[in-house]
Design brief:
Elements (H helix, E strand, L loop, with lengths): L4 E2 L8 E2 L1 H12 L25 H14 L9 H8 L2 E2 L2 E5 L2 H18 L4 H8 L6 H5 L1 H15 L3 E6 L5 E6 L9 H17 L8 E6 L8 H14 L4 E7 L3 H10 L5 H4 L2 E3 L2 H11 L39 H18 L2
Parallel strand pairs: 6-7, 7-8, 8-9
Antiparallel strand pairs: 1-2, 3-4, 5-6
Helix pairs in contact: 2-4, 5-7, 7-8, 8-9
Length: about 350
C-alpha cells in the first residue's frame, strides 16, 4: 500500500523493501558530513574534563548574548553556558577554551535558533489555539498558517515530555506508531523545537540535558528529508542537550534508520543512542525514572497511563478555539510542578 514499507514479517511489524531502502540511502548519502558537526563539542577532546570559569567571565558571556540576541538571551541557563565554556580547547586540551571560542560556539547555536524561528514557537501554539478571527490571525495569514501546521504536528501526540528522571532530567517520550507516514517536514521539526524548548525551560537548576525514550514498535516509513533535518536540529540547535536515547523494541526499520544516520552523527551523539529489547528498556526505566517501576508507561508493560494526558488525536478535544488538540499547556504545567517537587526534595 505504501511505497516505503511492506508488512512481510510474521509479527506484522514493518519491513523495508530493498528498492526503497536504496532510495532513502541515496538521499542521505548525498549529504555533506560537515553539515552535521556538533555545534559545541569537538570530537578530539575529552568532554568529561572541565576547567573553572569565573563569575566575571560568565557575566561577560551573558552580556554579549543579551546584546546580540535580546529576545532570546534567557534561553541559555548559566549551567549550560558554564558547561560549554569549561571544556578543554581542541588545539591544546591541557587548557580551557578561550572565552572568544566559547562565545563563537554559543553564538552559532543562537543564530540557528533565530534562523529557525525557535523563539516564536510557543507564540505560534497560542495563536493556533485561538480563534481565526483574532486580530493577529486576520492581519498575518501566513503566520496563522504556520501556527495551524505546527498544531497539526503536535496533535499526533507522538512526541511529548512527561516526568523527570531521578536526577531531574525531563523525559521526552516518542510514540512512533502515532507519527505521520508522510510528514509535513517543517511543521514536524517545528513541533520538536517547541517541545524541546518547553522541556529545557522546565529543567531544574543545574540540569542541562534531557533523556529521550522511544516506543518503536510500529515506526512510520523512514522519511530521509525529515531525518536529515531532525539530525541537523540536534547537532546545530540542541548540541549536548540529549543525554541518551533509548529505543525499544528493535525492528528492521529502526536498524535501517540507525545505519543510515550513524555515519553522519558526531561520535558523542552516536554513542548516546541505544537500541534495546522490551525487557532491557523496562530494566533501565525502573532504575532511571523518578518513581521507578511506578512511572513505566503501559506501552512498555508498566502501570503509568500516559494516554489520559496525551490521548491519540481522534480521542482528544480542542484545547481552545483553534485547531490545537494536544495539551501543550497542561504538559508545561506538569513539568513545572515536577521541577518544583524535585527541587524541594533536594533542600
Amino acid at each position: 500500500m505504501m511505497n516505503w514499507l511492506g508488512y512481510g514479517s510474521e509479527e506484522g511489524t514493518p519491513e523495508l523493501t530493498s528498492e526503497d531502502a536504496k532510495k532513502a540511502a541515496a538521499v542521505v548519502g548525498a549529504e555533506n558530513g560537515d553539515e552535521f558537526k556538533d555545534a559545541l563539542e569537538d570530537d578530539d577532546v575529552d568532554a568529561s574534563k572541565t576547567f573553572e570559569v569565573s563569575a566575571e567571565e560568565l557575566t561577560i558571556i551573558r552580556k554579549e548574548l543579551e546584546t546580540q540576541f535580546p529576545d532570546d538571551c534567557t534561553y541559555l541557563s548559566d549551567a549550560y553556558i558554564l558547561s560549554v565554556a569549561s571544556k578543554p580547547y581542541s588545539k591544546d586540551p591541557t587548557k580551557r577554551r578561550p572565552l572568544e571560542y566559547s562565545m563563537e560556539k554559543l553564538t552559532n547555536v543562537m543564530e540557528w535558533r533565530a534562523q529557525e524561528g525557535a523563539p516564536e514557537m510557543e507564540a505560534l501554539v497560542k495563536l493556533a489555539n485561538g480563534p481565526e478571527d483574532a486580530p493577529e490571525a486576520v492581519e498575518k495569514p501566513e503566520k496563522l498558517a504556520k501556527a495551524k501546521a505546527l498544531a497539526t504536528a503536535l496533535n499526533y501526540a507522538g512526541l511529548y515530555f512527561h516526568g523527570l528522571t531521578k536526577d531531574g532530567r525531563p523525559v521526552l517520550w516518542v510514540r512512533t506508531n502515532r507519527m505521520p507516514w508522510y510528514p509535513d517536514v517543517d511543521a514536524q521539526c517545528n513541533a520538536l523545537i517547541t517541545l524541546a524548548d518547553a522541556g529545557i525551560r522546565a529543567m531544574p537548576e543545574g540540569v542541562t540535558d534531557f533523556i529521550c525514550i522511544s516506543d518503536s514498535s510500529y515506526p512510520p516509513p523512514p522519511n530521509p528529508t525529515f531525518l536529515i533535518k531532525l539530525l541537523k536540529a540536534l547537532v546545530k540547535g540542541y548540541p549536548d542537550r540529549l543525554k541518551t536515547l533509548w529505543s525499544a523494541p528493535v525492528s528492521s526499520v529502526i536498524q535501517f534508520v540507525m545505519n543510515l544516520l550513524l555515519p553522519l552523527m558526531p561520535g558523542r551523539l552516536a554513542s548516546k543512542v541505544v537500541l534495546l529489547d522490551l525487557d532491557g528498556v523496562r530494566d533501565k526505566l525502573k532504575d532511571t525514572l523518578m518513581n521507578g517501576e511506578e512511572d513505566i508507561p503501559t506501552f512498555f508493560g508498566g502501570p503509568c497511563e500516559h494516554d489520559k494526558f496525551f490521548p491519540e488525536e481522534a480521542s482528544a478535544e480542542n484545547q481552545g478555539k483553534g485547531n490545537l488538540k494536544f495539551d501543550y499547556f497542561g504538559m508545561v504545567e506538569r513539568l513545572v510542578q515536577a521541577r518544583k517537587e524535585f527541587e524541594a526534595s533536594k533542600k
